[in-house]
Design brief:
The structure holds 2 protein chains of 2 kinds. Chain A is mainly α. Chain A has 6 helices and no strands. The chains are: A mainly alpha, B mainly alpha.
């Protein structure tokens, strides 16, 4: 009985956080905000829901459930970090003032987003020039 | 008992989340939005596989969830590396 109540609370909590993450991915304004919604709330929600299933299921699935939770906790932040870095480097739009961009000068950043460049808006040479101008540190690292 | 009887409704709620994420996957203006939505959809699919275990009573479905988690991680890493290389080289 107590295990049933615990399982119900875990399942409902997991669904709540997963739905919040999905609504965040749907509603928020730019790729970084969406990443913020999906990585943290998504990890927590999926972990809680799998834990609830492990408590409620009559058979023995605890080992696999623990493996899933540990794997999710280990990999979703890594995937989120990689995606965030790739998003910044590829020049996706985001709504932050130019002088408040904390990663400016730390990571190279293309001046236009990848889909704009692939669609051919703006010449290719201009994009290269902008990328070099924006990050003088990279120019010195290039081999002569 | 409660958990097993409500699990079908929980799965319906998860489908709502999958639909929202799928809309973002389709309309997302950039590549990054689509990759983020795909990552989120993987987490939702793992949760759906775990709930299917509870609904059908077959414990093979939770192994499917583990497989989905592994595959989704590899897919996300591959897409992120693609986006970083492709976005950086010009």
């Amino acid at each position: 009985m107590i295990a049933d109540i615990i399982a119900t609370v875990l399942l409902l909590g997991g669904l709540f956080f997963l739905l919040m993450a999905a609504i965040g991915v749907f509603r928020l304004g730019d790729p970084f905000l969406r990443l913020h919604a999906s990585t943290k709330a998504g990890t927590l929600g999926a972990g809680l829901l799998v834990a609830g299933v492990a408590v409620a299921f009559p058979g023995n699935v605890t080992g696999t459930a623990i493996a899933i939770i540990v794997f999710l906790l280990a990999t979703l932040p890594v995937a989120g970090h990689l995606l965030g870095r790739a998003t910044y480097v590829s020049g996706a739009d985001f709504h932050v003032d130019e002088d408040r961009d904390a990663l400016k000068g730390v990571l190279p950043r293309a001046s236009k987003s990848l889909e704009l460049r692939l669609l051919g808006k703006g010449s290719q040479e201009q994009t290269v020039l902008n990328a070099i101008e924006a990050h003088p540190a990279d120019k010195e690292k290039e081999p002569r | 008992m409660i958990a097993e009887s409500i699990s079908i409704y929980l799965l319906v709620g998860l489908m709502l989340g999958i639909i929202l994420t799928g809309v973002r996957l389709i309309i997302g203006p950039g590549f990054a939005d689509r990759f983020v939505a795909l990552d989120m959809m993987t987490a939702l699919a793992v949760a759906a596989a775990a709930l299917t275990t509870l609904i059908t009573g077959r414990q093979e479905f939770i192994d499917i969830g583990l497989g989905l988690a592994v595959t989704g991680f590899v897919a996300t890493v591959a897409l992120a590396v693609f986006l970083e290389k492709k976005g950086n080289e010009q």
